[in-house]
Amino acid sequence: MKKIDIVVPCYNESEVINLFYRECKKVTDKIEGYNIRYLFIDDGSSDDTLSKLKGICENPDADYISFSRNFGKEAAMYSGLKNTAGDMVVLMDSDLQHPPALLPQMIKGIEEGYDCTATYRATRDGDPPLRIAFTNRFYKLVNKISDVNMPNGAGDFRMMNRKMVNAVVAMSEVQRFSKGIFSWVGFKTKWIAFQDVERAAGRTKWSFWKLFIYAVDGITAFSTAPLRLASVVGACVSFSAFIYLIYVILKTLICGKDFPGFASVVTLILFIGGFIILTCGILGEYIAKIYMEVKNRPVYLIGETSLKDSKEDYEIK
Ligand code: UDP
Ligand code: MG
Asked: Taking Cα atoms as reference points, which of 66, 9, 2, 70 lies closest to residue 34?
């Protein structure tokens, strides 16, 4: 019988985790011909998520991994993919924003010969308008300037076959941006739309600032266009400065008088100064990425787990 692993990252989800397991079980119990298991990743929760997970894991179809601290959802998904051996792996949020009812359809996609069935939100009713506006901009920008294509609304809710999971796990970068990685590895993907719903309980872990940093990470992880843009704008500014210099010299020679221009000089200094600082910032983003990657620290550390042979991230490094 083929095996499906459902990986569920959980961070402070004590209000919703039992409900999630109950609702999801209703769907998976009806799926025949597959051995379906759950792997919950407790991402260093500070509430009693872990003790609730231990309760859930008394069922024979569930296991948990608990991190030594909060490493973030990307790390949780990575460790989930790394610690599963099923023929198919599903990534799913624990707040029921990813409808379990889609699972049979996702399995069908893989049976049809696709390597992955991924979902995207057809609407974003659960999000505030400002977040929707910025998210739309982000997808437009990142698809334009990078060589990966991330469909707007595509989340992490997807089912992948073993071939694709192995490819994703093989990308062992420390600063992970899964949406980009899924697209980068390629493979045949079937897309399924779903209606956005509000979380069943609890609160989102994403503040506006966290999302902004995440967006910058996404762009710098898959594109060097900002660096090129800095060089191009730098060249344009130098060229304009040169033209202006010639204009000033000629005007002084022809008109024979001093060129008064205190205001324009100050404006130019501020403009060029600002541009240099911005360029340093862009360079800094990439240098920080290199710095974190060369340290090659593990993406996650396991505090405790119910798995007998769990894989730490440093074991293969
Ligand atoms: N999550 C996690 N670690 C974190 C933040 C979130 O494992 O540091 C999990 C969280 O428990 C949930 C999923 O990632 O299962 C999505 O988080 P959330 O619902 O807060 O994000 P949103 O749906 O608002 O994008
Ligand atoms: Mg959510």
From this structure: 2
**Ligand 1 contact, 16 CB (< 6 A):** no
> Ligand 1, from 48, 70, 93, 127: best to mutate by most atoms within 8 Å of Cβ?
93
Mutate to test the pocket of ligand 1, among 46, 95, 156 (most ligand atoms within 8 A of CB): 95
d(CA 218, CA 251): 49
- How confident is the model at residue 213, as a pLDDT? 85
* 262 pLDDT more than 90: no
Tell me the torsion sign for CA atoms 123, 181, 217, 304.
Answer: positive
- Whole-number pLDDT of residue 317: 47
CA of 205, nearest ligand number: 1
pTM for the full predicted model: 0.81
Q: Whose alpha carbon is nearest atom 8 of ligand 1?
A: 72
- Three-state DSSP at 197 gives coil
What letters, b where the CB count within 10 A reaches 16 and e where it falls short, cover 175-186? ebbbbbbbbbbe
Question: Please, what is the Cα angle at 204 between 198 and 208, to 5 degrees?
Answer: 115
Identify residue 148 by its one-letter amino acid code: V
Ligand closest in space to the Cα of 94: 1
Any idea which ligand is nearest the CA of 93? Answer: 1
* pLDDT-based confidence at residue 102 (cuts at 50, 70, 90): very high
Smallest Cα–Cα separation from 95: which of 182, 174, 204? 204
Residue 124 backbone phi and psi in degrees, to 5: -125, 40
Distance, CA of 28 to CA of 137 (rounded, Å)? 37
